[in-house]
Amino acid sequence: MRLVKGLLDRCVDVTELLSGASGPLRLSDIAQQLDLPKSAAHRLLRELCDRGWMEQVGIDGPYRLTLRFGLLGGRVLRASGLLENTQPLLDQLAVRTRELARLTVVTGHALSWLSSAQGAPPGLMYQPTMDGAPVLHATANGKAFLATFDDATALRIARSVGLGVCQPTPRTVADETALARELTAVRQRGYGLADQEAEMGVTAVAVAIRGRSGIVRGTVSVAGPSLRFPPARIPELAKQLNDTAAALGEIWPEATGTEPS
After folding, report:
1. Which architecture characterizes domain 5-66 according to CATH?
2. How far, in Å, are 43, 51, 102, 119 from residue 46 at the CA level?
3. pLDDT digit string (tens) for 28-63?
C-alpha cells in the first residue's frame, strides 16, 4: 500500500496539537488550528477514534488523546532503560545542590521534560508541574539546547516555537538580536541561565547532555527561588551540572531515536 505523506503529516499534527492542549478540543478548533476543512478533520479524527488513539467526550463533544499514547510511551521508556539509568544521577545532583534538578530529552527540534528530583528542604521549595515543553527562548534548558546550533538554525527553531510572541515574563528575551547575543554568552560560559525569564522569582541553570557519539541528547538543570541563586553561586552550580551531564552522556542509550532530523 502506498503511504500518503499528507495523511501521515495530518495524523502527527493532530496528535501534537492535542498533546499540547490544556484540555479536549472541539472539531472546529482543531480544523482551524491545523488549517483543515472541517470535513477532512472529522474524517481523520473518526479514524483515529476507531483505532483507539483518540476519543470524543460525549456526543458531538470535544476530542482528546486516549491513555494508549501514555502506555506506549511508558513501554518505550522502559525498553530504552533511560529513566532507570539516569534517575540516580539526577537524584545525586538534587542532593548536592539542595535544589530542584530536572532532565529533558531532545525530541526533534524541541525538548520534552523527562524527570525531576527535589533536593530543596521543606519551606521555600520550588516544585512546578512538568506539563508541556520548556519554552526554548525563555528557559535555561532551552538556551543550553539552542546554543548547540549555529545562530541561524537556533533562531529559526526559536521562531517556530514562539520567539517574539510568547513572553512569559517581562524579563523574557523578546527578539532575535537579544537571543543571538544570549546564545553567544551561553557558548562562552558553558551553561544556559534564565533569571526570572520563565517565571518571576525563579532562576535556573542548565547544560546540554551529549551522548558518547557527540549528539545532543537532552539537558539537565537546577532551579529554585532567585534569592538562593546569587551570581556568586552560579559557577559552582554550573560545574556540578557539567559533571552530571558528562556522567549522563556516558550512560545515555544511543538508540533513543531522539536526535534532530
Report:
1. Orthogonal Bundle (1.10)
2. 5, 9, 37, 46
3. 999 999 999 999 999 999 999 999 998 999 888 999
